């Protein structure tokens, strides 16, 4: 695993979280696959942007057509595959709601060091060399006030300040060189293999996970020796008022 920002020491033991819907968690436990989406698949319209024009700013007709640099970067958005984690000391109600089926999913707790140890070399084709896995904390910038001047890869670790609540730790694989060597690159995402027991430190049961799903999660975890890693969300605690 390669670190994106050489000027920023990365805490390899910082706690990072990934929230799953139940069926995706079960697939992960069974296969070890984690999905890396193409950068252009995200809802964030500013993904990879170097600046943001103010709302209502008039469109300059001279920039109505995509220029070569714009087209090239759009292709880079297709060729860069990304996986997102949440940096936090504690579970997040917002993340449960957004990414785990409105509290009905599962969360795993890990660290960057575990990811580095668990990641299997990724190859688009068996005969082709493995691709670098890049990692780093996302930096949040007010793109209304600043214009980024960073290299093409680093762009994917900068986001508009409006998204700072995400506290994102990001993994990415660039397939630009693979395509230049004639290897067919999927238009959307890829599945990257991880050693599940090495990756997972804790498994958290969602606050509203149905009993049948909870049983399936527990059985899947126990089948690979992770039964002792299961915890229940603190959101299921009993409130006291006196």
Structure description:
This protein is of the alpha+beta class. It has one domain (2-236). It contains 7 helices and 12 strands. The chain has helices at 22-31, 68-79, 93-99, 112-118, 176-180, 196-199, 211-223, and strands at residues 2-3, 16-20, 33-38, 80-87, 106-110, 134-137, 139-141, 158-160, 168-174, 190-193, 202-205, 230-232. Strands 1, 2, 3, 4, 5, 6, 9, 10, 11 and 12 form a 10-stranded mixed β-sheet that branches. A two-stranded parallel sheet has the order 7-8. Helix 1 (22-31) packs parallel to helix 7 (211-223). The longest helix has 13 residues, at 211-223. It is globular. The model has no long low-confidence stretch (mean pLDDT 91).
* Domain module count: 1
Portion of residues in helices? 10-25%
Shape type: globular
Q: Return the string of H and E elements.
A: EEHEHEHEHEEEEHEHEHE
Number of discrete helical segments: 7
Low-confidence stretches: none
- Structural class based on helices, strands and sheet pairing: alpha+beta
| Alpha carbon gap, first and last residue | 50 Å
* Rg over CA atoms: 20 Å
Task: Outline the biggest β-sheet.
Answer: 10 strands, mixed
């Amino acid at each position: 695993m390669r670190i994106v920002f050489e000027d920023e020491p990365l805490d390899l033991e910082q706690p990072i979280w990934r929230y799953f819907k139940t069926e995706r968690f079960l697939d992960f436990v069974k296969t070890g696959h984690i999905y890396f989406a193409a950068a252009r698949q995200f809802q964030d319209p500013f993904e990879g942007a170097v600046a943001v024009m103010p709302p209502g700013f008039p469109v300059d007709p001279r920039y109505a057509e995509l220029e070569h640099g714009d087209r090239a970067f759009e292709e880079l958005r297709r060729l860069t595959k990304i996986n997102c984690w949440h940096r936090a000391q504690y579970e997040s109600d917002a993340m449960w709601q957004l990414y785990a089926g409105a509290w009905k999913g599962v969360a795993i707790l890990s660290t960057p060091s575990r990811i580095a140890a668990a990641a299997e070399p990724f190859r688009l084709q068996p005969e082709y060399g493995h691709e670098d896995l890049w990692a780093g904390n996302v930096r949040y910038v007010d793109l209304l006030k600043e214009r980024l001047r960073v290299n093409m890869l680093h762009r994917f670790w900068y986001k508009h300040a409006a998204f700072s609540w995400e506290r994102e730790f990001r993994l990415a694989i660039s397939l630009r060189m693979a395509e230049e060597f004639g290897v067919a690159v999927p238009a959307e995402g890829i599945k990257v293999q991880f050693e599940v027991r090495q990756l997972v430190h804790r498994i958290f049961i969602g606050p509203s996970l149905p009993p049948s799903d909870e049983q399936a999660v527990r059985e899947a975890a126990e089948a690979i020796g992770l039964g002792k890693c299961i915890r229940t969300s603190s959101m299921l605690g009993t409130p006291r008022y006196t």
